[in-house]
Amino acid sequence: MASRLNPYLVFEGDARQAMEFYKEVFGGTLSLNTYGEIGGRSGAADADKIMHGMLESPSGFTLMGADTPPGEDYRRGNAYSISLSGDDEAELRGYWEQLSAGGSVSVPLEKQMWGDVFGMCTDRFGVAWMVNITERQG
C-alpha cells in the first residue's frame, strides 16, 4: 500500500455532525467509532462522542476526524486549511456551495490573477477550505 497523507480534524463535541455534513458534501462511506465503543477512559458523558471517524469519498478523498479526547482541552487552531483542486468545475463549485453555506467566505470563488477560479471559506464547524478550479486542458 502506498503512503497517504490525510487531514485529521479535531472537534469540540460536534465531530458526528461535522463528519455527517462532509458525507453530504462529498458522498462516500463514513465510519464512526465512539469512545463508548472502545471502552477505557471515557465516562457516560463521553460515550457517544467520536473517538475516530473516517470518510472515504468516491473521488478518492479521505477525511478523518474526532472529538477532543475526554479529559483534554480543546484548542481550535487556524494553522491549517483543506485544499480542494482540479478541473471539474461543476463538482468543485458544488463542494464550494455546500461548504460555504452557513459559514463565512473570506475570498469569493472567482477568477484570480493567476487564471484559476479560487475561493476560501470557513465552514459552519470552523474548518478552513480553499477551492481552486483550473481550466480543463485539451
TrEMBL record:
Give every Glyoxalase/fosfomycin resistance/dioxygenase domain span.
Answer: 4-131
Organism placement in taxonomy: Bacteria, Bacillati, Actinomycetota, Actinomycetes, Kitasatosporales
Entry-linked Pfam families: Glyoxalase
Which InterPro entries does the protein's record reference? Glyas_Bleomycin-R_OHBP_Dase (IPR029068), Glyas_Fos-R_dOase_dom (IPR004360), PhnB-like (IPR028973)
PANTHER family, A to Z: PROTEIN YJDN (PTHR33990:SF1), PROTEIN YJDN-RELATED (PTHR33990)
Task: Give the species.
Answer: Streptomyces chromofuscus
The organism's place on the tree of life at top rank = Bacteria
Q: Give coiled-coil spans as residue ranges.
A: none
List the protein's name: VOC family protein
